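Data deposition worksheet. Section B asks for the primary sequence of the deposited chain exactly as it was used as input, without tags or linkers unless they were present during the calculation. Section C holds the resulting structure in token form. Section D is free text for depositor observations; keep each observation to a single sentence. Incomplete worksheets are returned to the depositor.
Section A, Depositor: J.P.
Section B:
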Amino acid sequence: MGFQVTLNEATGLHQLTSDLTGLVDEANKYLAAVAARGLSSRTIRAYAFDLLIIYRWLEQVAMRLLDLKESDLTAFIADQRSKEARPRSINRRLTVCRLVYRFWTDHDMERGRGVSVPAPYYKGFGRDRILGLHVLARPQRLRLHVKTPKTLIEPLTTEEVKTFLRSLKRYRDLCVVHLMLLCGLRSQEVLLLNVPDVSFEHNRLRVLGKGNKERFLPMPQTVLGALSSYLRLERPNDCRHERLFVVLQGRRRAKAMTPAGLRNLFRYRRSRLNVSRANPHRFRHTFGTDMARAGVRLPTLQKMMGHADSLTTLQYINLSMADIADAYLQAVARIQRRYETDREV
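Section C:
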């Protein structure tokens, strides 16, 4: 039997399983140590699946993780690229591999020959060119990693949002989409909402974000009205839990909504309405873009979206080509008026 990821019912955490007991213990003790630090179950799950891919590759090339050098990881990168893994995913798996190695050896992985690393000071000398807050420290040792392309995620257009919203027939579905579009919630944050998290008295919402970090968000009347109608008219009274969003029909009626159920809500409408870009993260990105266009300051938007790093927020508010064109045309119109003369052309 090869490596697999299973859920440990006793601990509620994911772990590796295999006939190769020693290697499984090597990985699972690291996952247990990560869990002891208080990281969320979703983080443990992500680490477990990254380790699954790493150990399957190690089995394929007949190597042990503790015997690896940085030069060996170039073969892992080549293998991941052949399987069309995304650069961010490859870099995350490289990091997990190094963390497990350091966990067991208490030192960094040796570099070895034939490793191509980024050129020194590739970010440029001096202060951070985006925020201008601090002097960039010179890296002690540059890590082997895959270059990540900087792609611009375009927000949904007004017509795409309207088309999607018109297709929603249930208050529950309307609430889910509005919480992403008007409050900037992630998919998992929507699923983890409990009924007591909604305060109609104070018009605010308690959100449990990544790393179990709490934040409170104000709610517009549109969201409050939809939530009130959902709780009053659609949510079953026989729910034995406090999860806000539940299944409304079928054998799983009154049970908590699952990630698969949330994905189906969007997948079905994307194909039927021919709105291929309408996914949960795109609605959240549209929220960040709309807030930036409305003049919301970066620190405020960072808190609203639950980002630990302001640089992450900056990625959400990159200007689209339409924004650039609009700003250019407005500026050119002002400039042209400045240089207008009475002479006819």
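Section D:
The first helix runs from residue 21 to 36.
The chain has two domains: 4-105, 158-323.
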